[in-house]
């Protein structure tokens, strides 16, 4: 039986994230009230900064279990990430253990965080992997789009791909939506169609978030 990540650990991670994110940057959180208060939820987060995951963990209204590349789980950091309920995933294979644990989070009514672009890039949701559609269709959990918008092109960056310290970072939560068509189908065609629906929703949310924040 696959062990489900610790919900208590994820709450500890959320509290640590609150302190770190508000200590190093100036988060502005918009639309957090849109996140369902109970039941399974999938956060679909754009990924252009190294702090995107910790930022969402810290400012989201519910503890979050993120799927994180296995390369990050090294030494003390790996033990820490496991302790705070995060999920190690091999991005280069069908990682059945990670899939089972992620579905377990949703089956227990928890929140799963996914970077649907697969890796850090320009953060525009232009290239989505099928994993998000699979988890959404398989679990029936609604997807909440999350846009993390910060400035990485201003002078004063100390570390590449991080916003300048004390810079404002906007985190905008969107309306939850269903990825499936209601049929419950899990065929390749159904997942492809779900991925198309997801991409349209996420792209529209990102455009709205940029207009709202002026980013």
UniProtKB/TrEMBL annotation:
GO biological process, one term: phosphatidic acid biosynthetic process
Keywords, alphabetical: Acyltransferase, Transferase
Positions of the Phospholipid/glycerol acyltransferase domain: 41-151
Cellular component, GO, one term: plasma membrane
Taxonomic superkingdom: Bacteria
SUPFAM superfamilies linked to this entry: Glycerol-3-phosphate (1)-acyltransferase
InterPro entries noted in UniProt: Plipid/glycerol_acylTrfase
GO MF, any single term: 1-acylglycerol-3-phosphate O-acyltransferase activity
UniProt xrefs under Pfam families: Acyltransferase
UniProt name for this protein: Acyl-phosphate glycerol 3-phosphate acyltransferase
Keyword Transferase tagged: yes
